[in-house]
Amino acid sequence: MxxxxxxFHTRRxxxxxxxxxxxxxxxxxxxxxxxxxxxxxxxxxxxxxLTAGSALFGVVAGLVxxxxxxxxxxxxxxxxxxxxxxxxxxxxxxxxxxLVSAGGASVVRSTVLGLLxxxxxxxxxxxxxxxxE
Length: 133
Description:
With 133 residues, the chain is mainly alpha-helical. The chain contains 4 helices and no strands. Helix 1 runs antiparallel to helix 2 and helix 3 packs antiparallel against helix 4.
């Protein structure tokens, strides 16, 4: 009867694990920034032809989104769970409200939809942090 070969595990240092986690989050933030930038550029285009203004708007919106998401991920673990949940909720609400307002909606509508997005993200993140800590 054959036996499985023993697996050789190498011990990674704490620094290499932290570096790989930071790189993974940087990649995720960059990917989400690309999606957000494309979405913002398409909303700004409003069904018309692609212009340099709408493309630049999408690139800048995506870069700002990615930078803020990565910075928030780096700062959030040091916060208590209430402030961590609130910071992710504010980020999500402002991001969503900005996209709604870029589409030409009124200030009231973009504010209400941003607040609804922020409230739902707060509820989800607070529940997650409360049950896992």
